[in-house]
Design a protein that fits this description.
By secondary structure, the protein is mainly α. The chain contains two helices and no strands. It is about 85% helix and about 0% strand.
Length: about 60
Amino acid sequence: MSIRLIAIELYKAKQEVEALERKIRGLPPGDQAGRAALQEELRQATAEHARILKLLDGAKSG
């Protein structure tokens, strides 16, 4: 996969993480179930972002 395509995927992953963070901040204080679900999605999105970032770093190195 080219560096350009990896960078595009990294950008999309970053946008998803930021959108989930905004959703969590916008939740009403009493919505614990919704908050827990969004935090799990955020955890997964953050892990995907980190995975793509490592992939990009590896592509730049080699």
